[in-house]
Amino acid sequence: MFSPIIIIEAMINGLLTGAIYALVALGLTLVYGVLHIINFAHGATLAAAMFAVWGLNAGFGIDPYVAIVIVTPVFFALGYGLQRFVIGPAAHGDDGNILLITLGLSILIENALLASFGSDTRSIPSDFAFSVVEAGPFLLSSAKLVGAVGSLVVAILFWLLMTRTDTGKAIRAVAREKLGARLVGINVGHVYAVTFGLGCAALGVAACLLMPTFYVNPRIGGAFVNIAFTVVVLGGMGSVPGAVAGGLIIGVVESVSGLLLGESLGQIGIFIIFILVLLLRPTGLFGARV
């Protein structure tokens, strides 16, 4: 039987990891909330962002946290361009086409990464990854603590953007009623592209916060997007607060399950939560009832 201190420490570390999960899920839920589609290229885009962070460090010695100011705007521009000039025109207004296009982009990005970097796993060597912060009887990873704080700051900025700016109002208007938004003069195509760009920008930040403690290979995005999808379903499709709450809950469940069942079985708890939410509350914690 584990002592209460060990269990509480596992829960705290789960919250720190869950904050990163929330950031990855944030882009997924934002795109769904406006475009009403699941972006199947989400995981591959995260892998590309992580390789970008690794490349900046390996080639130019840029610290992953400093790389945020480079990677974030680049991936916003990438996401904007993909939606405005590739996904939107190729979809011809059909959501089913968008799903197929993002699936194709996922395959394209993953294979481009395989061709460029091979299947080897890469990481960024850093002494900071092994440093810890003492909080009473608990030992917390410094890098995870920075990642959690950074993720929550980004989530707050997203919330402020959505609730306090004209861009956010336009995004919410398009999400609620696309035709009505177009009739009052909102450029729906631009709003779609901005939303997709913001989703990719969130992945850029997540990649910078992940790389000090994690590794990257061309297929790593799949593991994160599976968890992110569970987070989105738990929190409520399209809900930014739901993505944050869902990420924190899933992080704790994964950490405690790993402690009790072993690291290799740690994700069983995540999928039990996923099934229970689908059975008992399909709209999620913050999703609107229909």
From TrEMBL:
<feature type="transmembrane region" description="Helical">
    <location>
        <begin position="98"/>
        <end position="117"/>
    </location>
</feature>
<feature type="transmembrane region" description="Helical">
    <location>
        <begin position="223"/>
        <end position="253"/>
    </location>
</feature>
<feature type="transmembrane region" description="Helical">
    <location>
        <begin position="259"/>
        <end position="280"/>
    </location>
</feature>
<keyword id="KW-0813">Transport</keyword>
<dbReference type="InterPro" id="IPR001851">
    <property type="entry name" value="ABC_transp_permease"/>
</dbReference>
<feature type="transmembrane region" description="Helical">
    <location>
        <begin position="12"/>
        <end position="34"/>
    </location>
</feature>
<comment type="similarity">
    <text>Belongs to the binding-protein-dependent transport system permease family. LivHM subfamily.</text>
</comment>
<keyword id="KW-1003">Cell membrane</keyword>
<keyword id="KW-0029">Amino-acid transport</keyword>
<dbReference type="InterPro" id="IPR052157">
    <property type="entry name" value="BCAA_transport_permease"/>
</dbReference>
<protein>
    <submittedName>
        <fullName>Branched-chain amino acid transport system permease protein</fullName>
    </submittedName>
</protein>
<feature type="transmembrane region" description="Helical">
    <location>
        <begin position="191"/>
        <end position="211"/>
    </location>
</feature>
<keyword id="KW-0812">Transmembrane</keyword>
<keyword id="KW-0472">Membrane</keyword>
<keyword id="KW-1133">Transmembrane helix</keyword>
<feature type="transmembrane region" description="Helical">
    <location>
        <begin position="138"/>
        <end position="162"/>
    </location>
</feature>
<feature type="transmembrane region" description="Helical">
    <location>
        <begin position="40"/>
        <end position="58"/>
    </location>
</feature>
<dbReference type="Pfam" id="PF02653">
    <property type="entry name" value="BPD_transp_2"/>
</dbReference>
<feature type="transmembrane region" description="Helical">
    <location>
        <begin position="65"/>
        <end position="86"/>
    </location>
</feature>
